[in-house]
Amino acid sequence: MDNLGELYYECGIKYFEAERYKEAVSNWIQAYDLDYEKESIIENIYNCFILPNEQEFRKNYEQNREGFTEVPFEACTLDFIPLSEDEFCIFDREEKTFQGVIALEENPLQGDKIEFNDILYTDTWDIREMTADMKEYERDVVYVLVNELEPKFVSFLKLPRFRELYLKNVILFRNERIMHDFFEEYEEFYLPKQIVTADGKKYWDLIHNFHEKRIHHTDAERKNIFLSICIPSYNRGEIALENVRHLLSCPYDSEIEIVVSNNGSTKGVEAYEEIKNIKDSRIQYHEFPENQGYAANILKVCSMAKGRFAMLVSDEDLMILDHFGKYLSAIKANQDCGILFAGRGDLGLRWDPEEDNTVSIIEKGIWAIETAAMWTYVTGFTYNMRLCQKLGALEKLEQLRCGKAIDWRNEEMMLDRTSERNLCVEIYTNNCLAMMLCRYADFAHFKLDMFDVKKNNTTFKGCFDIGSRPECRLEKQNSRMDFVHQVLNLNKGDFIRLFLYECKRTHFLINLSFNAYPEDMLKLGSEWEIQACVYKDQKEYLDSFPIPLTEEEYAIIQGKIARTEE
Q: Residue 260 to residues 284, 398, 556: CA-CA distances in angstroms?
């Protein structure tokens, strides 16, 4: 047989007669592509495979298309040749070409990797171009702009369970006008941050225009904020302004807000005024008429947050924006956690080099509380605000405050034990909030640097101050234990464990002070004398322990804190 097309055609007939239908169709397609008996082949395929299943295809289509497309069944331009129960050959009626095979998945496509950013496909009809991403990533939305290709794209709805398998999170745009109207009307839907297109400039310009309209739509009600970036600030207007401008350069709009609270600053006033006057829908600005103290400003900026999560950021710390999308995805993947942290790797958590994990989950309760307790710097914690609201956490912290501002550089205020205030709540408000959430939900620590922490002379870093003195270290320890007892409701074993942890930590921090400021510390006494005084104070707290102890428990704890002193 000289004609190869004829050979394929005859083989197709033989396979069909032997009821080997898949091989029959494959051979007929080979003959068709060689321009042999094309009309006869199409007639055979339609009569034997497509028309006998037309009612089933129509039934599937009518069920799948409801609320998705208005294209009628007859207008669909793709037909499907059943090769098996879940495998179909595609024929394009318009172009009169075979377009390969689609094998239906067994289960709805759901990737293992949680991805925060949505994706847009443009000017495509072929769902197979999207399946690789669908299998790898779980996204909230996949946008598809089909333009004149809608009759092709929706033809896939003829296939059984197709909408369930492939389109659960797909939003279809028939044309650019509809997409334009959608993103303008529904600002709670996030703009895609990835685009698969043949005309990149055109569609990126289009998305950029949507972005610009959203950030300048300052009167719009913001309904779906995911992350509030909360910046408490005092007397550092220029630094805060730089930080705000930096954050505003990110590509996110409806997803985020930037909350700034000016704590009655008397310096940098012009810069704060400039922040206040920035016309950007993402900014919330507040200012106290006068300094209310650290705790009040932290609680204010958190109470203003409208996002599902709120990240506290010192005004001097610049976010590494290249990592922002990764962090949003990490939060989304661990959104049941109470506290999420990505900062500078300073927590001392150990990562297994043999594992490719990017997150360490510390189980809620004492383990998570201890982890939260060790990190007191303001930048890094991201709080689950739904859990905050459920627990009334901000309100409880406000109730525990003394109601007046405490200057951490004022020795009398810091060491005044006759006051009603809790020093830990006043100067480590962010830390106390983290501990509260860790009592009821896990702590997620991400192996991801998120901040470029600047060195700034105005932050009083690197100098010996009242906060480094042993008596202040002890006041912080005792007030933290009082806070834990009043708020966290730990069982006796966990409370004792945390007390011993805090005792050990206090000795460790005093040793650090001796290493960093030996001359200043020696003016207060020798290292042995100071550690003895610390042990004495810790024993006094043990003597008035807020939880009843047996004689045996008392003796064991006393022995452990005595060994800590040594």
A: 6, 19, 48
